[in-house]
Specification:
- With about 240 residues, this protein is α/β, with parallel strands linked by helices.
- It has one domain: Spore Coat Polysaccharide Biosynthesis Protein SpsA, Chain A (Alpha-Beta Complex), CATH 3.90.550.10.
- It has six helices and ten strands, in the order βββαβααβαββββαβα.
- The strands form three sheets. A six-stranded mixed β-sheet has the order 4-1-5-9-6-10.
- Helix 1 crosses helix 4.
- The radius of gyration is 19 Å and the shape is globular.
């Protein structure tokens, strides 16, 4: 079983400037993801896709490969992620003249991820014979209870409804948020898909702290606080 590990890290960031290489508790943000994937040790290659020379240098310093500069067409704000991973896959397979079986993509903006999470996610992926598996956490908001949409007239209505009204969130069907930490793809599915969603789609449930994604400055500061206080343990 040949596994390709990918980490997608654009140079531009609007929410937190240069966040992928900004230091978090003593080392660049992207280093946490590189070290986790390398520490897991089951990927034949760990490749960082980036358009930034600075990110390339940091990635190399921490042991990841950066065998190309991401094409401009895949480096804009509007570029979806799946074509970026497909580009990595095509590049590596053409370079090596052989195919991979599984692609594991980790988002560098979710640094509170344990090696056990990668291993257990892969076990679930293989057990269920999934085409794609992604990590989630139980959602704090629930469309059956406290999430609403607006109609054309501006009137609010519950996003999803059941036959009877739900008066407590605990009584509503459980829903999950994709936390952006781990994505595992079956190679043939990834090669042609345009969407994350398919018939054989599975999830790996992570805890709330492990699911913090850095999108705003406050997210960065909160993770820094957790690490400084020893409130999150990687092992």
């Amino acid at each position: 079983m040949r596994i390709l590990g990918t980490i997608c890290a654009r140079g531009g960031s609007k929410g937190v400037r240069n966040k992928n290489i900004r230091h978090l508790h003593g080392k660049p943000l992207i280093a946490y993801t590189i070290e986790c994937l390398l520490g897991w040790g089951k990927a034949q290659r760990v490749v960082v896709s980036t358009d930034s020379p600075e990110i390339m240098q940091v990635a190399n310093d921490y042991g990841a490969e950066t065998p190309f500069t991401r094409p401009d067409g895949l480096a804009s704000d509007a570029a979806p992620k799946i074509p970026v991973i497909q580009h990595v896959l095509r590049f590596c397979e053409e370079q090596e003249k052989s195919k991979y079986d599984i692609i594991i993509d980790l988002d560098p903006t979710s640094p509170l991820r344990r090696i056990d999470d990668i291993e257990n996610a892969l076990i679930e992926f293989l057990r269920t014979k999934a085409q794609v598996l992604y990590s989630v956490t139980e959602s704090a908001k629930n469309p059956y209870f406290n999430m609403v949409e607006l109609d054309d007239a501006g009137n609010a209505y519950l996003s999803k409804s059941l036959e009877g009204e739900v008066f407590r969130r605990q009584d509503a069907p459980k829903v999950y948020s994709i936390n952006g930490s781990i994505y595992i793809y079956e190679r043939d599915f990834l090669e042609t898909t345009k969407s994350l969603h398919c018939e054989k789609e599975r999830v790996y449930i992570m805890d709330e702290l492990s699911s913090i994604d850095i999108d705003r400055e406050i997210d960065f500061q909160f993770i820094e606080f957790l690490l400084e206080r020893g409130l999150f343990k990687f092992r």
